Amino acid sequence: MKKVLIAIVSAIVLSFPYSAHAYQEAYQLTGLGLFGGRPNQDGSIDLRNETTNTDQNNPIRGQSVADRPRPDFAPTPIDVGSFQMFPTMDVAAYYDSNIYATQSHANDDSVWKLDPSVSLVSNWNRNALAFTGFADVNSYMANSSQNFMGGAVQTQGRYDLGNQMWLAGNVGYQRDTEPRSSPNVVGNAATPSQFDLTTAGAEAYRGVGLLQAKVDYDFSYFNYDALSLVGGGVANQNDRNRYSNGLRTEFLYDLTENFKPFIRVGDSERSYTSGSLRDSNGYQVDVGAKADFGGVTTMEAYLGYIDRNYYHFENGNVGAFDFGGRMLWNVTELTSIEAEVQRTIEETTIGGFSLPSQISSSYISSGGSISVTHELMRNVLLEGNVAYTNADFQLVSRNDNVYDIGAGARYFINRNLFTDATYDFQRRSSDAADSSYDRSVVLVRLGAQY
Q1: pLDDT of res. 43
Q2: Left, alpha or beta for 3 (phi > 0: left; psi -120 to 50: alpha)?
Q3: Per-residue pLDDT averaged across 371-390, rounded?
Q4: Which end of the chain is more exposed for a tag (fewer CB within 10 A), N or C?
Q5: What pLDDT does residue 16 have?
């Protein structure tokens, strides 16, 4: 059990999206990226992994080279009663060629980053409890008005009812910053756009027998800060504050040991606190399968339909063919390829909160990414990825194409120290005026883990 916990938490503390990717493009997908992943569409992150991972009793099968346990370089946990603590501290510097993500007159800057984090995970044979917290401090050398701080705290737990049967829950708080490249950021904002995010969730799972079932519920509340504007004045962002509730069920049939078809049905509601114009409800129905080809290749793919009704808009129903999936292919013992595709319907504030002719209800985000990781040496990882996302804004004539390519190396100095060097190039091509941009980011990081 101890080795399993070390493997899981090592992957978590080394892959916080905030640690190396707080500057990443808002459109891109979660889960893939240089050494850990990217923020969600809105800039928030997902920490809901430790206690409800159904594969935690077999951490090797279906793992990529990047996530593979490395006992010689894994952190040594601090025993705190029946818990184990994993503290880390990252110090990084990165150069951003276009800090405002503008089409012309780009401003560049160098930024110092400080990212402390800690995870406290139970070491029990049954049930599980985990506490996670981290901070992200960014200090710009020449543009101090762009300095920002963020972070998160989260508690999650699992109560085992029996073999492969449990109830789980989580509650958390995040302080996040929207990327300047987000289409929802006010164009003449003098300071970064920040928001508070409160989250909670519950899950019930039954995996006994051939038919497995899961029901989960998620809640979130977004609360945006007022923005200082260039030239003076303040933009009140209360109109963006909103609640989101979602309920999803999944039924999976164990047809064979390596092939499991499933069906997912979900329903969600989004409600704004300062006006009902952008309120919506929606559903999602998907049919797919999970496959495992001997642990060398694992995949999940689904097709279906996704729909949201922005019922205060004329022609406000947004429906689309849904698709998604992930694949991991361990080409050799030293090389892994991960691929991901996904489609979602996302919130936007383009056009504001009244009903002029140019106001968008939402946008359909469709994209994918491929990441390749190679273990050059036991303590040296090389990684590269490419990503593409299309944002199709509804009710207005705007369409964005976002491209991303990156490469990097990670060197484990010993079990307590590691260092990263990464390069990331981003391009947005948009048919909206002055919305395209190019951006390069070079980062060097030193991480310490106990």
Answers
A1: 66
A2: alpha
A3: 93
A4: N
A5: 38
Tokens 């793919």, residue? Answer: 301
Residue 382: both structure tokens together: 């090389």
Residue 298 CB partners (closer than 8 Å, separation 6+): 62, 290, 291, 292, 327, 328
pLDDT at 329 over 50: yes
H-type helices in 347-418, by residue range?
A: none
pLDDT of residue 51: 59
Residue pair 351/360 in contact by the 8 Å Cβ criterion: yes
Alpha-carbon distance values, 438 to 20, 192, 427 (Å):
19, 19, 4
Q: Give which of 364, 383, 388 is closest to 373, Cα–Cα.
A: 383
Whole-angstrom distance, CA of residue 289 vs CA of residue 282: 23
Residue 38 confidence class, pLDDT cut points 50, 70, 90: low
Written as six digits, the tokens of 428 are 């947005």
Q: Could you tell me where the beta strands, DSSP code E, fall in 100-147?
A: 109-122, 128-140
- Strand-strand pairing, 148-162 and 128-140: antiparallel
Single pTM value for the model? 0.87
Question: Residue 447: left (phi > 0), alpha (psi -120 to 50), or beta?
Answer: beta
